[in-house]
Amino acid sequence: LTQDELKRIAAYKAVEMVESGMVVGLGTGSTAKHAVDRIAELLHKGKLKKIIGIPTSTKTHKQALSLGIPLSDLDSHPVLDIAIDGADEIDPNLNLVKGRGGSLLREKMVEGVCKKFVVIVDESKLVKYIGGSGLAMPVEIVPFCWKFTAKRLQELFEHAGCVAKLRTSASSNGMENGGYVAKLSTFACSNGMENGGLPFVTDNGNYVVDLYFTRDIGDLKAASDAILRLAGVVEHGMFLDMATTVIVAGDRGVTIKNK
Ligand code: DER
């Protein structure tokens, strides 16, 4: 089975947990895309009725609109019945890294107020510890003096061998090694980019600094608190103690883990 087929299997399994009349958080990314497609399909077949979707990005908003899923927002629905979304990493305690698609703020706002948060992944997302994939752990920051903030983030995690890179539109999902490594010598609060390439800008008009680790971060709650204490930080991509159900699709079948 291809990775995308596994993603679809996990997504369809999660949609079985959606009941008529529910307010549903619609995730962002290639796995959540399948869940949004499936919800629309069941709505049009009459198998699901009166669903209200709360999108977690402009991208998902557009997809859901084009599929005819009725949409609303957190102002009208401050509590959701369920949210379904993908993840970039999942550790054994069901802590997540999310945000390599750049939607972490709206995802965390929506997925933080739902009764059930169902995470759908293919087995490649399972890691021993957060940051263990060696890929990006995204942090959404304000553009003002981004180098200053990137440097402070990098210094916070010196013990974990952290390198902070501003995400550019060229490396927009934090996966490539593109982006700008914050020059730790000189800092002028210009928002320009010395090495060319434009900063990736989130739906909320902010920048993303991707943190790369070569060692275990350690206490994740302490790490989360330390990141959020930095004044230039908006939110980070560690979703700690938020998932209630994780659906993992692998070549040997689907496993469902409940918190
Ligand atoms: O960027 C995000 O938060 C996405 O949900 C990400 O965590 C999963 O994206 P994928 O389903 O395309 O792998």
UniProtKB/TrEMBL annotation:
Protein name: ribose-5-phosphate isomerase
One GO molecular-function entry: ribose-5-phosphate isomerase activity
Keywords: Isomerase
GO terms classed as biological process: pentose-phosphate shunt, non-oxidative branch
EC code(s) of this entry: 5.3.1.6
Residues of the full protein shown: 28 to 286 of 327
Catalytic activity: aldehydo-D-ribose 5-phosphate = D-ribulose 5-phosphate
Protein's organism: Salix dunnii
Family: Belongs to the ribose 5-phosphate isomerase family.
Pathway assigned in UniProt: Carbohydrate degradation; pentose phosphate pathway; D-ribose 5-phosphate from D-ribulose 5-phosphate (non-oxidative stage): step 1/1
